[in-house]
C-alpha cells in the first residue's frame, strides 16, 4: 500500500538545549510515532521510533517527509 502523507501530522522542531539542530516530529491521531533529527554540532542525522516494529513503507515515507521539510546540509560554524 502506498504511503499517504496526509494521514500524519508533521511538526518542524528545533533544539538548541541538549543538541543543536532541527528535525521533524511525525504523529498520528495525537500519538508521536517518529522523530528524525539533524544535529548540526555532532553532524549526525538520527531516527527515533515510538514502536519497535514499523512497516518499511512507513519508515521510508517518514524519511521522505524529513528530506522534504529539512535541509539536508549541516549548518557550519565559521
Question: Short description, anyone?
Answer:
The chain has 78 residues and is of the alpha+beta class.
List strands and helices in order, with pairings.
Elements: E1 9-15, E2 21-28, E3 31-39, E4 44-49, H1 56-69
Antiparallel strand pairs: 1-2, 2-3, 3-4
Account of the 3D structure:
Helices cover 18% and strands 38% of the residues. By secondary structure, the protein is α+β, with helices and mostly antiparallel strands. The protein has one domain (5-69). Strands 1-2-3-4 form a four-stranded antiparallel β-sheet, with helices on one face. A hairpin with a 5-residue loop joins strand 1 (9-15) and strand 2. It is elongated. The mean pLDDT is 92.
Distance, first to last CA:
45 Å
Count of domain modules: 1
Number of strands: 4
> DSSP helix count?
1
Helix % is 10-25%
Strand order, largest beta sheet:
1-2-3-4
Structural Rg? 13 Å
Structural classification: alpha+beta
Q: Stretches where pLDDT falls below 50 for ≥5 residues?
A: none
- Strand content bin: 35-45%
Q: How is the main sheet built?
A: 4 strands, antiparallel
- The ordered H/E elements are EEEEH
Shape: elongated
Q: Whole-number average pLDDT?
A: 92
Amino acid at each position: 500500500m502506498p504511503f499517504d502523507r496526509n494521514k500524519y501530522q508533521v511538526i518542524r522542531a528545533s533544539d538548541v538545549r541538549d543538541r543543536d539542530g532541527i528535525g521533524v516530529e511525525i504523529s498520528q491521531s495525537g500519538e508521536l510515532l517518529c522523530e528524525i533529527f539533524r544535529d548540526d554540532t555532532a553532524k549526525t542525522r538520527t531516527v527515533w521510533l515510538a514502536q519497535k516494529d514499523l512497516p518499511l513503507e512507513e519508515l521510508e515515507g517518514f524519511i521522505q517527509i524529513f528530506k522534504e521539510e529539512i535541509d539536508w546540509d549541516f549548518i557550519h560554524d565559521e
